[in-house]
Design a protein that fits this description.
The chain has 336 residues and is α/β, with parallel strands linked by helices. It has twelve helices and nine strands. 39% of the residues are buried. Strands 1, 2, 3, 4 and 7 form a five-stranded parallel sheet that branches. A two-stranded antiparallel ribbon has the order 5-6. Helix 6 runs antiparallel to helix 7, helix 6 packs parallel to helix 8 and helix 10 runs parallel beside helix 11. The longest helix has 19 residues. It has two domains: 197 residues, Glycoside hydrolase/deacetylase (TIM Barrel, Alpha-Beta Barrel), CATH 3.20.20; 67 residues.
């Protein structure tokens, strides 16, 4: 069966199961089949309707469909609460948590009203150096430079010459360059990024000056009941830093939140969050800094065997609601 045909069949089956109420049966079966409680953690970044391929975001309508469904069929608690409940054996069998990384302003303008409407709590992980600043994270500077440049190609840190002839080529170059930069130690990363931006003739991006939350926005989120977590100061890959620099980034983000919000964050999110992006020494630094839990981007469910400082995250990335619902139930049934 061809891929397009397979997708059509899957969408049709998923829609039929949801309409017949059988997706719910699969969800209930998943909860009852587990020998021990488990919960999943969703990871979101941006939610808006701008349709910019270089600055991708989940459309607002898609986000609302997902939140409405999850609120109706799952028990949504914060990561912090679920960690506490796991320690005391009180995790609901249908529990999930919602998280947002980085600290984008559209989390307040687009996502927060939807979360509040359905009374869904969430934890917002902030890269604190960008809050209330005119600076934007490096990956946005690179994306903006690639989108706006008039250059025909760019040389990567590995020496490849990447063509920039059309939008597809520029997006492919962006993925390639981001992947290479994330593997570099901090000194070489900074040098390579500066060289790339200079080579692209970075024009600056005034349209992005309100890309990130201000501290007033963060206070508004706190007032709406959202938890605030730390995500370092400048969003570096912590495994590429010296331990002293990693400590600065971890403690710096915690202290910035304490100073601006009057709130000691309990949860931390490792930037990028894959297995290669942090080390056991970094985990020890997070614990020593006073965080009671930390999230990765490793895919899977969390049980009482999961370290609170290496929690797994991930959800179906389906815009079609029946497929989202079916995959979510299937994950609960099959992931251990």
């Amino acid at each position: 069966m061809s891929e397009p045909r397979r997708e059509i069949v899957f969408r049709s089956v998923a829609g039929g199961l949801l309409r017949a109420g059988l997706t719910g049966g699969l969800r209930v079966m998943a909860g009852r089949s587990r020998l021990r409680p488990a919960f999943s953690i969703f990871t979101y970044h941006r939610v808006n309707d701008w349709g910019d391929a270089f600055q991708p975001a989940m459309p607002t309508a898609v986000f609302e469909r997902q939140i409405r469904y999850v609120a109706a069929h799952y028990t949504v608690l914060t990561v912090e609460d679920l960690v506490d409940r796991m320690a005391s054996g009180r995790v609901p069998r249908d529990a999930v948590a919602i998280t947002f990384d980085d600290g984008y302003r559209d989390n307040l303008t687009h996502a927060a009203p939807i979360l509040a409407r359905y009374r869904v709590p969430a934890t917002m992980f902030l890269a604190t150096g960008f809050m209330g600043s005119k600076e934007v994270p490096w990956y946005h500077r690179l994306a903006d430079a690639l989108q706006r440049t008039t250059r025909a190609s760019v040389s990567s840190p590995s020496g490849e010459e990447l063509p920039l002839g059309d939008t597809a080529a520029r997006l492919a170059a962006l993925r390639r360059l981001q992947g290479q930069l994330k593997t570099l130690a901090e000194d070489r990363f900074q040098t390579s990024l500066a060289g790339l931006l200079e080579g692209l003739g970075e024009p600056g991006s005034p349209a992005q000056r309100d890309l990130m939350l201000s501290w007033e926005d963060v206070l508004a989120l706190r007032g709406l009941g959202f938890r605030i977590g730390a995500h370092t100061v400048s969003h570096p890959i912590l495994s590429r830093l010296t331990l002293d620099r990693a400590r600065e980034e971890i403690l710096g983000s915690r202290r910035a939140i304490e100073a601006a919000v009057g709130y000691s964050p309990r949860a931390f999110a490792y930037p990028n969050g894959g297995a290669a992006d942090y080390t056991s020494d970094v985990v020890d630094l997070v614990r020593a800094a006073g965080f009671t839990c930390a999230v990765t981007t490793k895919f899977g469910m969390n049980t009482d065997n999961t370290s609170p400082w290496e929690l797994r995250r991930g959800q179906p990335w389906e815009e079609d609601l029946p497929r989202f619902a079916l995959k979510l139930a299937w994950y609960g049934l099959t992931l251990r």
